[in-house]
């Protein structure tokens, strides 16, 4: 609190103060649309809060409202701890404040203090995210994260840009057809600013491809690859990430399963991909002696850009939560489906399993 | 069904046979499923429809090999087509060139699942390409919508904005490039759209939305109108645009994703069908009558508002799904339109408001749907 105390108290610019009735005062955090309500006896707190313009010192305020500095500090600490007071000042403490002010002020509603906000921001800007697969989800996620201040991105894809990609994959131009996706996207990211550094890896995912990153610190892996199948890529990434203890997100929006909103896995804290696989297999048990799949030859698969980018947007939000280090991700122990007809999201919960070969009590990557 | 037509199982369905008796059909793009009770002949028929044989060939195989008469085969094939399990292989069409088909093939396949045949999917793509869409506001959401629509194939776009690109746009606008700093937003966004599709026809209008600004002439040129303009403020621009659109019966989308509603869905407005902006305003005037924020003490607060690129991307993607569904007729939006919703960063939930079309609405209430 040392640093924060030097600054004059200021109401967070994104917070609305509403008197609900004689006894209830609401603070509405407009970025995250959450409210904090307190019981009040009179309008004193309302008057103090709406005077917090950042120009008056605590002792001035205490004199103006005829209360003790100690009492006032208690109130201000309560508000600060809930993101209701401004935790950004002094702005100079933030690297590249001007470029990223929107991101910093967004995070501020989750901060308990100036130092806490600085810590979240520094974690995001110093983090490394591996994005596997630069298609209809991966391209959008990569650019979202660069724009939100992620310091380093590893872009992994061996593919080249094809004209049939342009309707749904972001950042590729007609003139890029035939070039490596990783090269084109890296250039696109540098065009935002020089803030984010990019490492390019021109290979496709298989069961051992990720070992080239063994020596590299990675804070988050996002699976946006669906070849050969989403199940394969998710399990390869899942196992690698579990072994190293790296948070990972199953992107979703895949071929043949466009509407999937994938799960978030924080190793040791929630169901891992093996837990999901086991439960999903039990649910979908099909007796192969009784059920057969009729083959469809030369299948052409449909895809829809805005559906994929919507799912990419959710991955982008989950990623920021994880990278901040202090905002609870939403999609642990669950995955969702977006229904294009009803435009609703349905989530289904999956629990961590004791019998899991990866994260169960006798699993090979067990941790608490 | 024409005798010479070649039929195939649709690319987007998975078919399972259970106990040789029940057919389960999964429609992968829309995640729907249907099941049918079937006999052995039905299975033989499905195995015969291979994307190479004509209806006549299939009918004769069914008759000779499995003893099914041609009337019966034809009836069942109609039923399979109605249920979007099979579709015709297109020999020839002159709506789109080979090059455009190749570019949009995946999206056409997606459309076809909703519409029935590949030909209808191509027609839907063509409809999208022929539409003229005006986009008010070239900020984070407006810029994304413009790019996403051009990516999807919209060729005629009119951009309306007065602003210039600033350094801090680097954390908000997905179309941003550092070389755009200082440029007019309409010009930089146009440059970006042309990189995506060099054949796109993009017109720029650099103006403020003021009370005297004539947007009616512009709006009348468009098939569809999108509003993302939050200056002077979103309520004003939305109201002005919606009034004109209702008058001329032009469908429009009031996009979400502005301050305090960073990932809201926005809403599709079909004049005289859905609530219009005035209906929403009336609704909020009533429900928020006791929710009055106090004057904020911080003078500089407008430069201290938060936002994330991913949240704008949610709002723009949602808008594009609805706009494309409407224009291409994938879904009958007159029956299944959505009211504005909010997606929350906090818990990734999506909830919708309950706003009804106001029959007393001064803008859209008096006129019956079929009156001029």
Structural features, described:
- The complex is a heterodimer of chains A (368) and B (372).
- Chain A has 368 residues and is an alpha/beta fold.
- Chain A has two domains: 2-91, Outer Surface Protein A, domain 3; 126-349, Rossmann fold.
- Chain A is 34% helix and 18% strand.
- Chain A is built from eleven helices and 14 strands.
- Chain A has helices spanning 2-6, 44-49, 58-65, 69-81, 97-108, 114-125, 138-147, 181-192, 230-244, 273-283, 305-324; strands at residues 15-19, 24-29, 34-39, 128-132, 152-156, 197-201, 220-223, 248-250, 252-254, 257-261, 264-265, 291-294, 334-339, 344-349.
- In chain A, strands 6-5-4-7-8-11 form a six-stranded mixed β-sheet, with helices on both faces. In chain A, strands 9-10-13-14 form a four-stranded antiparallel β-sheet.
- In chain A, strand 1 (15-19) and strand 2 (24-29) form a beta hairpin.
- In chain A, helix 7 runs parallel beside helix 8 (181-192) and helix 7 packs across helix 11.
- The radius of gyration of chain A is 24 Å and the shape is globular.
- Chain A starts with a helix and ends in a 19-residue tail after the last strand.
- Residues 1-5 of chain A have low confidence and may be disordered.
- Chain B has 372 residues and is of the alpha/beta class.
- In chain B, helix 4 (98-115) crosses helix 5 (118-130), helix 6 (140-152) packs parallel to helix 7 (185-196) and helix 6 packs across helix 11 (309-328).
- The relative contact order of chain B is 0.09.
- Chain B is built from twelve helices and 13 strands.
- In chain B, strand 2 (13-18) and strand 3 (22-27) form a beta hairpin.
- In chain B, the strands form four sheets. Chain B has a six-stranded mixed β-sheet with strand order 8-7-6-9-10-11, sandwiched between helices.
- Chain B is 39% helix and 15% strand.
- The two termini of chain B are 40 Å apart.
- Chain B is elongated, with a radius of gyration of 25 Å.
- Chain B has two domains: 6-89, Outer Surface Protein A, domain 3 (Alpha-Beta Complex), CATH 3.90.930; 131-352, 3-Layer(aba) Sandwich (Rossmann fold).
- Chain B has helices at residues 40-48, 55-66, 70-82, 98-115, 118-130, 140-152, 185-196, 216-220, 234-247, 277-287, 309-328, 333-336; strands spanning 6-9, 13-18, 22-27, 32-37, 86-89, 132-136, 156-160, 201-205, 224-227, 252-254, 267-269, 341-343, 350-352.
- The model of chain B has no long low-confidence stretch (mean pLDDT 93).
- The longest helix of chain B is centred in the last third of the chain and has 20 residues, at 309-328.
- Strand 12 of chain A pairs antiparallel with strand 2 of chain B, so a sheet runs across the interface.
């Amino acid at each position: 609190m040392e640093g924060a105390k030097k600054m004059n108290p200021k109401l967070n610019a994104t917070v609305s103060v509403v008197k609900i009735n004689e006894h209830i005062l609401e603070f509405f955090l407009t970025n995250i649309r959450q409210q904090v309500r307190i019981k009040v006896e009179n309008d004193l707190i309302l008057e103090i809060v709406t005077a917090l313009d950042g120009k008056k010192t605590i002792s001035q305020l205490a004199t103006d409202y005829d209360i003790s500095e100690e009492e006032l500090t208690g109130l201000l600490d309560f508000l600060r701890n809930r993101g209701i007071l401004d935790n950004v000042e002094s702005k100079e403490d933030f690297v590249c404040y001007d470029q990223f002010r929107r991101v910093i002020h967004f995070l501020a509603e989750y901060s308990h203090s100036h130092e806490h906000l600085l810590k979240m921001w520094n974690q995001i800007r110093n983090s490394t995210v591996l994005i596997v697969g630069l298609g209809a989800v991966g391209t959008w996620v990569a650019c979202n994260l660069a724009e939100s201040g992620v310091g380093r991105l590893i872009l992994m894809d061996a593919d080249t840009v094809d004209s049939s990609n342009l309707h749904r994959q972001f950042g590729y131009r007609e003139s890029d057809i035939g070039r490596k996706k990783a090269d084109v996207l890296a250039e696109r990211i540098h065009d935002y600013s020089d803030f984010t550094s990019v490492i390019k890896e021109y290979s496709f995912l298989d069961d051992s491809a990720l070992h080239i990153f063994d020596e590299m610190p990675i804070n988050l892996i996002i699976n946006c690859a669906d070849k050969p199948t989403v199940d394969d890529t998710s399990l390869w990434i899942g196992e690698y990430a579990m072994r190293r203890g790296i948070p990972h997100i199953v992107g979703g929006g895949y071929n043949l399963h466009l509407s999937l909103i994938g799960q978030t896995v924080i190793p040791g804290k929630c169901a891992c991909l093996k837990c999901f696989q086991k439960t999903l297999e039990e649910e979908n048990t099909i007796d192969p002696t009784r059920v057969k799949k009729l083959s469809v030859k030369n299948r052409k698969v449909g895809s829809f850009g805005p559906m994929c980018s919507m799912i990419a947007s959710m991955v982008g939000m989950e990623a920021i939560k994880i990278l901040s280090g202090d905002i609870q991700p939403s999609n642990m122990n669950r995955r969702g489906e977006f229904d294009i007809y009803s435009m609703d999201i349905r989530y289904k919960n999956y629990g961590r399993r004791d019998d899991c070969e990866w994260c169960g009590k006798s699993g090979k990557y067990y941790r608490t | 069904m024409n005798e010479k037509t070649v039929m195939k199982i649709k690319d987007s369905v998975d078919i399972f046979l259970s106990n040789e008796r029940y057919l389960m059909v999964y429609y992968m793009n829309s995640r729907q499923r249907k099941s049918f009770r079937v006999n052995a002949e039905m299975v033989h028929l499905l195995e015969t429809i291979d994307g190479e044989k004509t209806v006549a060939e299939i009918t004769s195989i069914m008759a000779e090999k499995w003893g099914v008469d041609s009337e019966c085969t034809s009836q069942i094939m109609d039923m399979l087509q109605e249920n979007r399990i099979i579709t015709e292989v297109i020999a020839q069409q002159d709506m789109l060139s080979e090059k455009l088909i190749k570019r949009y093939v995946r999206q056409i396949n997606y459309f076809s699942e909703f519409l029935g045949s590949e030909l209808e999917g191509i027609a839907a793509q063509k409809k999208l390409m022929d539409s003229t869409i005006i986009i008010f506001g070239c900020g984070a959401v407006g810029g994304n919508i413009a790019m996403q629509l051009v990516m999807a194939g919209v060729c005629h776009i009119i951009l309306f904005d007065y602003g210039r690109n600033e350094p801090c746009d680097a954390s908000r606008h997905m179309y941003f490039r550092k070389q755009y700093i200082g440029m007019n937003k309409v010009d930089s966004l146009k440059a970006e759209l042309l990189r995506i599709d060099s054949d796109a026809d993009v017109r720029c209008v650099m103006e403020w939305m003021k009370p005297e600004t004539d947007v009616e002439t512009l709006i009348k040129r468009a098939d569809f109108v999108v509003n993302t303009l939050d200056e002077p403020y979103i309520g004003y621009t939305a109201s002005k645009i919606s009034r004109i659109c209702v008058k001329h019966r032009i469908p429009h989308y009031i996009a979400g994703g502005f301050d305090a509603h960073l990932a809201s869905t926005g809403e599709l407005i079909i004049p005289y069908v859905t609530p219009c902006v005035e209906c929403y305003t009336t609704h909020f005037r009533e429900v928020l009558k006791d929710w009055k924020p106090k004057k904020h003490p911080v003078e500089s607060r407008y430069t201290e508002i938060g936002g994330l690129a991913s949240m704008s991307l949610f709002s723009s993607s949602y808008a594009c799904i609805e706009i494309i569904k409407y224009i291409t007729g994938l879904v009958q939006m007159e029956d299944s339109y959505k009211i504005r919703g909010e997606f929350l960063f906090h818990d990734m939930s999506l909830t919708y408001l309950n706003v009804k079309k106001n029959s007393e609405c001064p803008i859209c209430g008096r006129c019956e749907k079929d009156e001029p």
